[in-house]
């Protein structure tokens, strides 16, 4: 019984650690998902509970802090379950977390509000009902583990059978505490690194080596079937029938998921909405990604400015892409940047690079490099990447 309980606890712990790992690898992505949930909740309660609407909207401003705390806690809790540290307490905390997860995933699935819960970040995508089923399975396993845990120790008026803790047990407890503190340092260290640089592992489509132009195309040819009706009978056709007596009912795409582009929303335009997407995927381009100008200081832009000046003699065209609808031209003048600029959706730019501002080097659609503004590359770095091609 005791061995089975430890195995079940370890399984749950590993799942939590994996889920927590992809979140601490990219806390900004988890913060974006939090913001999505807060906006959905605020909208849903706005008519009945206005004070809750303001509460959820106020949480948007601290979504990044909540993301770091929540992501680290999930990873640490998983580690505690894996090593069976303070099992009863950790099982109770896990129960609270799973009930919370279950509510979110059920809410998303039943009301079709948030199509991806972000349980495993961008690494593994779950459908809303798939996420809810996962939480139910984990909940059942947890309850079994809790039941076995309560039966594992029988007490008498003299305490737990077996007497006081031995030296070996004390040593195990020390090792468990050291392991747990290592997981704490690792979790918060990963979050700090990801925010000050970029996620160590990029699970998004815009990772180095991927080709933007190819990802904008359908993954495979769409296959459609046609449902037609004649004399009250409905029949499915793989090709549209030439017999005019068959009346069209509906058309379905068999491989709807597979025939969609990996990135269907990558669209670059000027201030009038004209399509300039191709300019970013033809030739060699240094893209300066700026999401929000109000959060950027001049000293942040100076290294990027220097890089643009250094590359002016190279065959590398620099341009800015922003989602900020304010006076972006005025911002560039203030920063003394003389480069063309274009617009893109804010969600797309957040997916492209988790930095404001961020830098991306693209050659004929292939992403050669991505940098946080804290790690602005030099001209030599750019040259080395281009010479590898």
From TrEMBL:
Membrane topology, as annotated: Multi-pass membrane protein
Where does the Methylamine utilisation protein MauE domain start and stop, copy by copy?
1-145
Q: Which GO terms describe its cellular component?
A: membrane
| Transmembrane segment boundaries | 7-24, 55-81, 93-111, 131-149, 178-195
> What processes in GO biological process is this protein linked to?
methylamine metabolic process
Task: Report if keyword Transmembrane helix is assigned.
Answer: yes
Official protein name in the record: Methylamine utilisation protein MauE domain-containing protein
């Amino acid at each position: 019984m005791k061995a089975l309980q430890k195995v079940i606890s370890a399984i749950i712990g590993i799942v939590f650690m994996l889920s927590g790992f992809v979140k601490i690898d990219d806390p900004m992505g988890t913060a974006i998902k939090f913001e999505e949930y807060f906006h959905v909740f605020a909208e849903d309660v706005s008519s009945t509970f206005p004070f809750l609407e303001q509460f959820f909207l106020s949480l948007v401003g601290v979504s990044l802090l909540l993301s770091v705390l929540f992501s680290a806690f999930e990873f640490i809790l998983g580690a505690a379950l894996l090593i069976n540290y303070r099992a009863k307490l950790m099982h109770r905390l896990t129960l609270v977390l799973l009930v919370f997860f279950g509510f979110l995933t059920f809410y998303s699935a039943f009301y079709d509000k948030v199509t991806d819960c972000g349980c495993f970040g961008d690494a593994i995508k779950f459908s809303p009902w798939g996420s809810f089923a996962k939480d139910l399975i984990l909940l059942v396993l947890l309850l079994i583990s809790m039941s076995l845990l309560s039966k594992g120790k029988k007490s008498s008026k003299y305490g737990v059978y077996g007497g006081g803790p031995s030296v070996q047990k004390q040593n195990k407890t020390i090792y468990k505490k050291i392991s747990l503190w290592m997981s704490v340092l690792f979790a918060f260290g990963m979050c700090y690194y990801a925010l000050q640089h970029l996620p160590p592992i990029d699970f998004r489509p815009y990772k180095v080596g991927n080709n933007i132009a190819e990802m904008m195309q359908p993954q495979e040819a769409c296959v459609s079937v046609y449902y037609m009706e004649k004399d009250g009978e409905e029949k499915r056709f793989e090709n549209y029938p030439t017999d005019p007596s068959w009346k069209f009912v509906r058309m379905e795409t068999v491989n709807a998921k597979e025939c969609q582009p990996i990135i269907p929303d990558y669209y670059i335009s000027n201030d009038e909405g004209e399509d300039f997407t191709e300019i970013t995927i033809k030739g060699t381009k240094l893209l300066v990604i700026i999401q929000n100008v109000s959060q950027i200081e001049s000293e942040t832009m100076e290294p990027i400015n220097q890089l643009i000046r250094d590359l002016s003699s190279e065959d590398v065209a620099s341009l800015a892409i922003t989602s900020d609808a304010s006076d972006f031209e005025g911002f560039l003048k203030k920063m003394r940047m003389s480069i063309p600029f274009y617009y893109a959706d804010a969600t797309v730019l957040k997916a492209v690079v988790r930095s404001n501002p961020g830098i991306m080097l693209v050659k004929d659609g292939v992403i050669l490099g991505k940098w946080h503004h804290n790690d602005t590359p030099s001209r030599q770095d750019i040259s080395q990447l281009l010479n590898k091609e």
